[in-house]
Amino acid sequence: MSTLILALGNELMKDDGVGLKVGRILAERGYNVLEIGTDIFKLQRYYNGEERIIIIDAILTDKYKPGEMIHLKGEEVFEKLKAEIRSAHFMGAIDGLKLLMALDERLAKAEIHFVGVVAKEIELGTELSEEVKSNIHNIINAIENIAK
Fold first, then answer.
1. What is the model's pLDDT at position 87?
2. Mind spelling out the 3-state secondary structure of 57-100?
3. Could you tell me if 127 and 14 are in contact, meaning their C-beta atoms sit under 8 angstroms apart?
4. Pairing state between β 33-37 and 3-8
């Protein structure tokens, strides 16, 4: 199954850049990674019909500790994360993805996964918090397992 990993986030806002940093490591390992940053609509220009989409991004939630990772699949992504993903141009990433899926039949059929990393610090800076940084290895392993 062909897979595209979407690396979301803003690397100038500390932990919000975790998706981009993990995406770059996965790209170095040979995975098909698209750096979305904060513009989910970039997917429309670069999507080539991959059957599996894995989204990696920072989330804000009180349900888990900073650095912890969650994995959601399919409709669960849209139901549980609507308000937790950083917004891209005044539209949340999940809302933007739903719109793109309505416009592209191939994307609508793709298996969607979301790997969220609980952020501790979303403020100006380029370093990840220790909590997030110490879990990078586990996050990468989880994404590699999903991509198999």
1. 39
2. EEECCCCCCCCCEEEEECHHHHHHCCCCECEECCEEHHHHHHHH
3. yes
4. parallel
